[in-house]
Design brief:
By secondary structure, the chain is α/β, with parallel strands linked by helices. The protein is built from five helices and three strands; from the N terminus they run ααβαβαβα.
Length: about 110
Protein backbone atom coordinates (compact mmCIF):
# COMPACT_ATOMS: atom_id res chain seq x y z
CA UNK A 1 0.00 0.00 0.00
CA UNK A 2 2.36 2.72 -1.24
CA UNK A 3 -0.07 5.53 -0.48
CA UNK A 4 -0.03 4.66 3.25
CA UNK A 5 3.75 4.90 3.40
CA UNK A 6 3.61 8.08 1.35
CA UNK A 7 1.33 9.68 3.94
CA UNK A 8 3.66 8.70 6.77
CA UNK A 9 6.84 10.15 5.31
CA UNK A 10 5.27 12.87 3.20
CA UNK A 11 7.08 11.83 0.06
CA UNK A 12 6.45 10.30 -3.34
CA UNK A 13 6.44 6.51 -3.74
CA UNK A 14 6.91 4.61 -7.02
CA UNK A 15 6.08 0.94 -7.49
CA UNK A 16 7.77 -1.56 -9.81
CA UNK A 17 6.53 -5.12 -10.20
CA UNK A 18 9.99 -6.57 -10.81
CA UNK A 19 13.65 -5.62 -10.70
CA UNK A 20 13.91 -4.81 -14.39
CA UNK A 21 11.23 -2.15 -14.06
CA UNK A 22 12.77 -0.81 -10.83
CA UNK A 23 16.09 -0.46 -12.66
CA UNK A 24 14.45 1.34 -15.60
CA UNK A 25 12.64 3.74 -13.25
CA UNK A 26 15.78 4.36 -11.21
CA UNK A 27 17.85 5.03 -14.32
CA UNK A 28 15.22 7.39 -15.77
CA UNK A 29 14.96 9.31 -12.49
CA UNK A 30 18.75 9.60 -12.29
CA UNK A 31 18.95 10.94 -15.85
CA UNK A 32 16.24 13.51 -15.13
CA UNK A 33 18.11 14.63 -12.00
CA UNK A 34 15.23 13.49 -9.77
CA UNK A 35 16.89 10.43 -8.30
CA UNK A 36 15.26 8.28 -5.65
CA UNK A 37 16.30 8.69 -2.04
CA UNK A 38 15.73 5.03 -1.26
CA UNK A 39 14.68 1.75 -2.88
CA UNK A 40 12.82 -1.10 -1.17
CA UNK A 41 13.43 -4.33 -3.06
CA UNK A 42 11.95 -7.79 -2.58
CA UNK A 43 14.63 -10.45 -2.65
CA UNK A 44 12.55 -12.95 -4.61
CA UNK A 45 10.44 -11.92 -7.61
CA UNK A 46 8.65 -14.62 -9.58
CA UNK A 47 9.19 -14.15 -13.31
CA UNK A 48 11.57 -11.24 -12.94
CA UNK A 49 14.79 -9.87 -11.56
CA UNK A 50 14.99 -10.14 -7.78
CA UNK A 51 16.20 -7.56 -5.32
CA UNK A 52 19.80 -8.73 -4.99
CA UNK A 53 20.50 -8.41 -8.72
CA UNK A 54 18.46 -5.22 -9.03
CA UNK A 55 20.45 -3.57 -6.22
CA UNK A 56 23.73 -4.68 -7.78
CA UNK A 57 22.71 -3.08 -11.10
CA UNK A 58 21.41 0.09 -9.40
CA UNK A 59 24.73 0.46 -7.58
CA UNK A 60 26.54 0.15 -10.92
CA UNK A 61 24.77 3.27 -12.19
CA UNK A 62 24.63 5.04 -8.81
CA UNK A 63 27.22 3.97 -6.23
CA UNK A 64 25.49 6.19 -3.65
CA UNK A 65 22.11 4.43 -3.94
CA UNK A 66 20.54 3.30 -0.70
CA UNK A 67 18.31 0.24 -0.53
CA UNK A 68 16.39 -1.91 1.91
CA UNK A 69 15.91 -5.58 1.04
CA UNK A 70 12.77 -7.45 2.05
CA UNK A 71 11.90 -11.13 2.02
CA UNK A 72 9.72 -13.75 3.60
CA UNK A 73 12.72 -16.09 3.64
CA UNK A 74 14.24 -14.95 6.93
CA UNK A 75 17.13 -17.44 6.74
CA UNK A 76 18.53 -15.94 3.52
CA UNK A 77 22.13 -14.70 3.77
CA UNK A 78 21.22 -11.40 2.06
CA UNK A 79 18.75 -10.58 4.85
CA UNK A 80 21.26 -11.61 7.50
CA UNK A 81 24.07 -9.48 5.99
CA UNK A 82 22.44 -6.77 3.86
CA UNK A 83 25.47 -4.46 3.80
CA UNK A 84 27.59 -7.20 2.17
CA UNK A 85 25.13 -7.13 -0.75
CA UNK A 86 24.95 -3.36 -1.11
CA UNK A 87 21.82 -2.77 0.97
CA UNK A 88 21.50 -0.34 3.85
CA UNK A 89 19.34 -2.74 5.86
CA UNK A 90 16.78 -5.52 5.64
CA UNK A 91 13.23 -6.13 6.81
CA UNK A 92 11.52 -9.51 7.14
CA UNK A 93 8.06 -10.11 5.67
CA UNK A 94 5.43 -10.00 6.79
CA UNK A 95 5.97 -6.59 8.34
CA UNK A 96 3.65 -4.00 9.74
CA UNK A 97 3.31 -0.50 8.32
CA UNK A 98 4.99 0.92 11.42
CA UNK A 99 8.01 -1.41 11.06
CA UNK A 100 8.43 -0.45 7.43
CA UNK A 101 8.00 3.23 8.19
CA UNK A 102 10.67 3.11 10.89
CA UNK A 103 13.12 1.28 8.61
CA UNK A 104 12.54 3.84 5.84
CA UNK A 105 12.83 6.82 8.18
CA UNK A 106 16.05 5.48 9.71
CA UNK A 107 17.57 5.01 6.27
CA UNK A 108 16.44 8.45 5.06
CA UNK A 109 17.88 10.18 8.14
CA UNK A 110 21.32 8.89 7.19
CA UNK A 111 21.29 10.34 3.68
Amino acid sequence: EPELLEEEIDDEVEVAEKGEIALEKYNAALKSNEQFDLVLLDLTVIGGMGGEMAMRKILEIDPNAKGIVSSGYSDDCVLANPKEYGFYSSINKPFRKKELGLAVLKALREL
